[in-house]
Structure formats: structure tokens, C-alpha cells
Design goal:
This protein is an alpha/beta fold. The chain is built from eight helices and 13 strands.
Length: 284
């Protein structure tokens, strides 16, 4: 299929859908304010018996993500559970006791090793790296870390990426994330372990939680993913075998000007395999 289906509302897509796996940043909020209609859509879907699992590449535990959502005005009733790449990264740290971690990221992400017996060390003494982001994502890019990554590669350190996103919206700006550094390190020949979308573990965890809520294993044909990133949301859903509703107001907004006029070849170049449907912003 190379044609695009533009949906007007979520309700027209969820007949027979038991579970929605929704991205957060770019779909539910933009980092500074929530999107009321998107929150209302997810809440309405839940009120009709559906289960909503928020899946996010936030490099923090689910409870920290929930606190941020509350501050932005996203009610707890909007969703059933949250699965974050931070949760999965914490499992990696917990499963490697006694090993020394070099933590690369802003101070606001320190909850990623809260409650863990995590031993931190300078890069020169560490056994592996956990990257949650840039130290200053307002001014820096991945290139500012090339020297550091070259030193890490010389020591053959594994880099655990707690947020595979390259960029994310913050208001009307795009800022770099941990994925940008991880991709640079991989280009330099370093070993990277990615947690979060588009990689399989975060979907498996979300499906397990959804099955608990529904009381039975979930058929992937009855799951709809929602996201705004071709690289993470669309690719992750496709590789996991579930349909995807693509929201165009997010990080790709400029690329989608005149999207309804694209020819099949352009559609393939932009998406690869097109999503089940597109909406500018999530509405019920």
C-alpha cells in the first residue's frame, strides 16, 4: 500500500481494537503544555473498554514520567499504565551489580538510578556508559561529544542508550536527545544497547501490561500504536507487527506540508511502509 488514509478521529480507527500503545511527547504534550483533545481522545477510548498504555523514550522511571504528566495537566484517567525506556535501562543496571557506570546526561534524569546499587565512575574508570541525554540540550549537539565517544571506543565500553530519540519537541523547538549521541558512537564503531522505541523490549513490556489489564493475552491485530516519529514510532510498530496511527503535528511537521498531495513514490520515500492512518493531531 502506497496511498495515505487521513482519519478525522480516533473513534473511526478503533473498532475491534483492544489496546492503544500511545507515544507521549508530540502526541499528548510538547514538553511545555498538554494537548487537551489528545488526552480527551485517549480517555474516551478507555471509557469504551479499551486499554491505553503510554510508551515513551523518556530516560526516567514511569513514576517520574507520571509526575511530569500531572504537572502538564494530563489526568491519570487518560491512561492505564506507562512503560518508559528508563524502566528498561534500570533493569540493565540492576542486572549488572558491582560494575561501574559512567552516567552521561542532565541532572534532571538522576531518577534513572534512584534506589539502585549503581556505582558511578569517571569515563576512564567505568565499565559501561548509561546515556540519558546531553548535559545541556539547549546549546549542545552530539558533535560536542565526539572526543568523549572516541575515548569510550578506545576502552571498548558498551553504551546503554536510555532514549533512542534523535530529537524531540520542546515547545516550538527541536532539541537533541541521547539517541543522537548513541548513533554517533555506533558510527565510530562503539557497541550500543538501545532501550525504547523502535526496539522490541518496550513493546513486549507494554503488551504484557495490557494483557494484565484485559485479563488475557493480546492479539497484535487488535492493537493500535500512535506516534509522531517515522524512525521510532512507525518503524517500531511495523517491526513489532502492529498498526500505527501517525500524528503529523510533531517532529516531522515541516516535512508534512502538502502531504495529501504526495504521489506513491514520495510516500514510499517518506514513510517506507505507510501507517494505517494519519491525523494532524489526535482527536476522538
Amino acid at each position: 500500500m502506497t496511498t495515505l488514509h487521513f482519519a478525522q478521529s480516533l473513534r473511526e480507527l478503533v473498532g475491534g481494537v483492544e489496546v492503544v500503545l500511545s507515544d507521549i511527547w508530540g502526541v499528548v504534550h510538547n514538553g511545555l503544555e498538554s494537548f487537551p483533545e489528545a488526552c480527551e481522545a485517549l480517555h474516551a477510548y478507555r471509557s469504551h473498554g479499551g486499554t491505553v498504555i503510554l510508551i515513551t523514550n523518556a530516560p526516567r522511571p514511569a513514576d517520574s514520567v507520571q509526575r511530569q504528566l500531572r504537572k502538564l495537566g494530563v489526568a491519570d484517567e487518560t491512561y492505564d499504565a506507562i512503560v518508559s525506556s528508563g524502566d528498561l535501562t534500570r533493569l540493565y543496571v540492576a542486572e549488572h551489580p558491582g560494575r561501574r557506570m559512567f552516567w552521561l546526561g542532565p541532572e534532571r534524569d538522576n531518577s534513572i538510578y534512584r534506589g539502585l546499587d549503581a556505582k558511578t565512575a569517571p569515563l576512564e574508570e567505568a565499565d559501561y556508559i548509561v546515556c540519558t541525554g546531553l548535559y545541556d540540550d539547549e546549546t549542545e549537539t552530539a558533535e560536542d561529544y565526539r572526543g568523549m565517544m572516541l575515548k569510550a571506543r578506545e576502552r571498548k565500553l558498551t553504551l546503554v542508550c536510555a532514549n533512542p530519540d534523535i530529537v524531540v519537541e520542546r515547545g516550538d523547538r527541536l532539541i537533541y536527545c541521547a539517541g543522537a549521541i548513541a548513533e554517533l558512537y555506533r558510527e565510530l564503531g562503539g557497541e550500543v544497547i538501545f532501550y525504547g522505541k523502535p526496539h522490541r523490549p518496550i513493546y513486549e513490556r507494554a503488551m504484557a501490561l495490557a494483557g494484565e489489564r484485559q485479563g488475557h493475552p493480546i492479539d497484535r491485530k487488535k492493537v493500535l500504536a500512535i506516534g509522531d516519529s517515522v524512525r521510532t514510532d512507525l518503524t517500531g510498530a511495523r517491526e513489532f507487527g502492529i498498526d500505527c496511527l501517525f500524528v503529523t503535528r510533531g517532529i516531522h511537521a515541516e516535512e508534512f506540508e502538502g502531504l495529501d498531495q504526495l504521489d506513491p513514490k514520495s510516500v514510499m520515500e517518506l514513510f517506507g511502509h505507510p501507517p494505517k492512518a494519519l491525523m494532524r493531531e489526535l482527536k476522538w
